[in-house]
Structures are given as C-alpha cells and as structure tokens.
Write a structure and sequence with these properties.
alpha+beta, six-stranded antiparallel beta sheet, 4 helices, 15 strands
Amino acid sequence: MPDVAIDFCGEWYPVAEDKVFRIGREGDLEVDDNPYLHRSFLTVARYDGMWWLSNVGSRLSATVADPSGGLQAWVAPGARIPLVFSRTNVVFTAGPTTYEFSVHVAAPAFRQEWTANDGGGQTTIGPVLLTDSQRALIVALAEPMLRRDGTGLSSIPSSAHAAARLGWPLTKFNRKLDNVCDKLDKAGVAGLRGGAGRLASNRRARLVEHAVSSHLVTPPDLALLDGAAPGD
C-alpha cells in the first residue's frame, strides 16, 4: 500500500508524494458528473513534511472526521487541514447528492484510539455517552443516508416523521433532540446551536452530517428502528 491512498466506493487511488492529487468533477478522482460539484474541489498533497487536504473550490465545504468521532472539522473554500490520522473520513454535499471517501495514511503523525464498550444501555462514542433511545433518534433522522449511499441532506425526514417512525409523541422526540444536540454541543460539535443558548434552525441536518461523517451511527444501527420503540 502506498504512503497515502484514497478509498472511494471501494476503488483505491494511490497518491504520489511529488504531485497534487485533485478531486472533483474532473481530476485524478472524478467523483461524479454533477454540475453542482466543482471541477476541482479538493486536493491532497504533501507540504512542509506533512500531508494536507485543501479545499480549492469556491462554494462547497467538506466535513472531515476521524473514525472514532473524536475530531470533526469543516474545511471551507480556501482552507486546508493536515491529515494526521491513519484514516480520515471526508463527506460533502453537491446539489442533492452527498459523497463520502476516506484518506488512508500509512504512517500517521497522530494515533487516536477509543474503546467502545456497549453496556448498561449506554454506548461510548469518544467522550460522549449516548443512550439507546438517543442513538435511535439519530438513526431515525439519518435513515435515508444510511440505507442508500449518495443520498443528500435534503432527504432528512421532518421531526414529526422521525417521531412517528420511532413510535414516539412529537413532544418526546423534540425533548430528546434537544438533549442530544446539547450533549454534542458541549462535546465540541459545532453548528448545533445558533448562539446565546439558541438551537440552530438547521440542527437536524448538522446532526445527521456529523453522525454519518464521524460514523457515530452506521448501517447496522438501523436495527434500532425495528421492533419496539426504545424506552427512556
């Protein structure tokens, strides 16, 4: 395996150390013939002894996270972030479609390991503890994206629809959504509050983006939606 490689939909792309690897509608990794996607959107290259992911587009942003969910960041147009983990997940949306790929570094500068221990109705996700019902809420909102790769954030169900999917009253769903957003906000996840104690208006989309990109929830978690609704 080369020092750096990109996994996109099961296809592997080696990254040469002396070249700039371009990702977009055109380039070394042609993601999709999507008119909402920049011809050249992201690049992976080595500068000053480190590997970097750079956003060379003008409109779209990308969300990056390590597999444990312990770190997540937005890479806005013109910004770049060092690739310090053995694997970095990258998620971005162009028009109605959401894409995901991962960057694998053979000799990462930083190693982070979390131990997930599911017991007593709680699951450890980095520093955040989620109950089964809190996780089920996230899965209900992320269900379209978990069931079908490439589904965009516009497919996220309404709170009323997600509550019905879980068999909960809407008041219970909104209360638990407040609790989940507050818990992740305190853990450092940006975009879940609008400032001065106000919840962000697009918090459902931001919650799903974070949960999917950091693998806080994954397709096997869809089993939480089957059978009886989780309790408190």
